[in-house]
Design goal:
This protein has 338 residues and is an alpha/beta fold. The chain is built from 13 helices and eleven strands.
């Protein structure tokens, strides 16, 4: 069975995914904020289903409005009628989904528990989940704000841990970003049994991140993250390559510390002339290593500018992108016409 688990982009959403990670092997994790992104992620799932396999679509910690729920329901019914084997289940706790829950049988709503807790309880009767119950209880305590719960303070630290786990951008590295957050939660759970575990966890957040990003040797966190991301980019570079007047470059989308990462990548990949990072609002930065004048690229595609080795600008009327390939197609079109 192939499982597609779509969840929210907060502690509760990733906590719900940690439950299914402990159950299913063949699973794809997706995350979404509210708004247009939800249906885009749902369409991605629907287009990824296989007719010759059992497919399980699970949505957690996201409430669908009537139109979104009806769209999903109709699409799944169409696919089932054409021979697809699909199970659909939504588990949520947001009261704003009450109208959808009344209409669609696959829409389970319980406002008294967090989505992570609902997900754990939903599967615990049928599957061996592992020793994460106390972690899920901590997530539940903070997500529905049970201030008198003995795990509330631990949950607060977990919330900050996930909120600040931005080192791997989820649009550029969707799989790696999700697994990073899952691993942080797993590492954090080790502090649950310690005296004043919430304080110890708070003291060790920085060290947990450094532990995750250690490749060969310990360094500053910025350098370790940069090295980790440069290694990722080097492995994926064939699919990230763009061209400006036959000069090869690499495009990233929404990464932090793009100057540090860009310079490191160019030094390690000498066949690349420039490094470009695009942000969701259409702003971009360009870096070079004395092999091309990137200020000319910035000017030609967006009337931007700067220095020969460091420039930038902003693309007007840039359309929202929720997948890397969408951003890449937009930039390739601009570069081709410049």
């Amino acid at each position: 069975m192939r499982v597609f688990h779509l969840s929210h982009t907060d502690l509760d959403g990733y906590g719900a995914q940690l439950v299914t990670k402990n159950i299913f092997e063949n699973i794809e994790f997706l995350n979404s904020n509210y708004g247009a992104e939800i249906l885009i992620r749902i369409d991605h799932i629907l287009n990824s289903l296989k007719k010759d396999e059992k497919n399980f679509i699970l949505i957690t910690d996201l409430n669908l409005n009537i139109n979104e729920a009806r769209y999903l329901d109709e699409r799944v019914k169409e696919l089932k009628n054409s021979g697809y084997d699909i199970k659909l289940q939504l588990l949520d706790h947001h009261a704003s989904g009450v109208d959808s829950a009344k209409i669609f049988e696959w829409y389970y709503l319980d406002v008294t528990r967090s989505a992570a807790k609902i997900t754990y309880d939903f599967f615990s009767n049928s599957y061996e989940i592992g020793s994460i119950k106390k972690l899920i209880d901590a997530i539940n305590a903070v997500d529905i704000w049970l201030q008198d719960d003995h795990l509330f303070e631990f949950g607060k630290v977990l919330m900050r841990l996930l909120d600040e786990a931005k080192e791997l951008n989820r649009y550029m590295f969707p799989k790696e970003s999700t697994l990073y957050k899952h691993e942080l939660l797993t590492l954090a759970s080790k502090f649950l049994e310690k005296s004043k575990g919430h304080i110890l966890l708070d003291d060790n957040i920085y060290l947990l991140k450094k532990e995750y990003f250690t490749i060969e040797k310990r360094d500053t966190l910025d350098n370790m993250v940069a090295n980790y991301i440069v290694n990722l980019l080097s492995r994926k570079k064939d699919n990230l390559t763009i061209f400006y007047q036959e000069k090869k470059g690499i495009l990233t989308f929404g990464i932090q510390n793009s100057s540090l990462i860009g310079n490191s990548f160019l030094k390690q990949n000498l066949d690349f002339y420039f490094f470009m990072n695009l942000n969701g609002n259409g702003s971009f930065s360009l870096r070079a290593n004395n092999k091309i004048d990137v200020s000319k690229i910035a000017y030609n595609i967006a009337k931007g500018g700067g220095h020969p080795n460091a420039s930038g600008g902003k693309i007007e009327n840039f359309k929202d992108c929720f997948f890397y390939h969408q951003a890449k197609e937009s930039i390739e079109e601009l570069l081709k016409n410049s």
